[in-house]
Specification:
Layout (H helix, E strand, L loop, with lengths): L13 H13 L3 E5 L18 H4 L9 H6 L1 H12 L10 H11 L3 E6 L5 H5 L6 E3 L2 E8 L5 E3 H5 L17 E5 L8 H12 L3 E5 L11 H7 L3 E5 L12 E3 L3 H14 L1
Helix pairs in contact: 1-10, 5-10, 8-9
């Protein structure tokens, strides 16, 4: 192992940081999986954390349930208002987003799989074709009847006149183009994510609890293909014991430092 540098000084586990940095520096293909923890520094709350959306608002989870949404116009009305007031419309990429964009610019990012629906990775500069959005995006709206996709801004602009804006083509119920509880993940998207996990040398899970499957199982896919696993998350995850390196430092500090060392290496 290389000697520790000043880059490791701020971190709780300097040896763990050094191990993670060496793994990324030597990897030819790095696949990254991100969760809500990557976007909290941009002012977007996570879901399950102590200050998470579902923790602080017991009604919020119902708005993410497809049966509740489709069957109750009042739930849809509350959901549309919550979408219009969401922090994402004012959010900007943070240091972690920008660091991962630097990794992509340097040609070291094989793929970026994200559970997030905020589009901040693309806003930071990661090319669309390198981002795999397993839970969809709230930047688009989809008609549940005819499948028409519309930019969210165009639908949200109608809320002053329509509390439950319907599809302009067929009159069907619309919702953000995201995966709700009770909806099936797109099998083609999941297979693309699994392929990215199988093909990498290093698999880095950042800001995700790794408790939601099948996405969490991508760690297993990567390790079975002999990739090294690096976990960066504030709280422990079920995969910590199997990872080559685990870092519980603030994501906005440790991810830029890791990318800087990886690119220097």
């Amino acid at each position: 192992m290389a000697s520790m540098t000043d880059d490791t000084a701020p971190f709780a586990d300097p040896e763990g940081f050094e191990q993670a940095a060496e793994l990324l520096a030597s990897a030819r293909r790095i696949t990254v999986l991100t969760g809500a923890g990557v976007s909290t520094d941009s002012g977007i709350p996570d879901f399950r954390g102590p200050q998470g959306l579902w923790t602080t608002d017991p009604h919020a989870q119902a708005m993410s349930d497809i049966d509740c949404y489709m069957g109750d116009v009042d739930v849809r009305r509350r959901t549309w208002l919550a979408r219009r007031a969401h922090q994402v419309w004012e959010a900007a990429p943070n240091a972690a987003h920008r660091a991962l964009a630097d990794l992509a610019s340097a040609g070291r990012l094989h793929a970026l799989i994200t559970q997030n629906i905020d589009g901040l990775h693309q806003a930071a500069g990661v090319p669309d074709d390198e981002v795999i959005e397993v839970h969809g995006t709230m930047l688009r709206v989809m008609c549940m009847s005819c499948g028409l996709r519309t930019p969210s801004a165009a639908v949200l602009a109608r809320l002053d006149d329509e509390s439950d804006p319907r599809c302009v083509e067929c009159g069907g119920i619309q919702k953000s183009d995201t995966i709700s509880f009770g909806q099936r993940l797109d099998p083609e998207v999941i297979e693309r994510a699994a392929e990215a996990a199988r093909e990498c040398d290093a698999f880095v899970a950042i800001g995700t609890s790794l408790t939601v499957h099948p996405v969490a199982g991508l760690c297993d896919v990567a390790m079975m293909a002999r990739a090294s696993l690096v976990v960066v998350n504030a709280e422990p995850t079920p995969y910590d014991d199997y990872a080559s390196a685990v870092l519980h430092d603030p994501i906005g500090d440790v991810v830029p430092a890791l990318v800087k060392r990886a690119l220097a290496g």
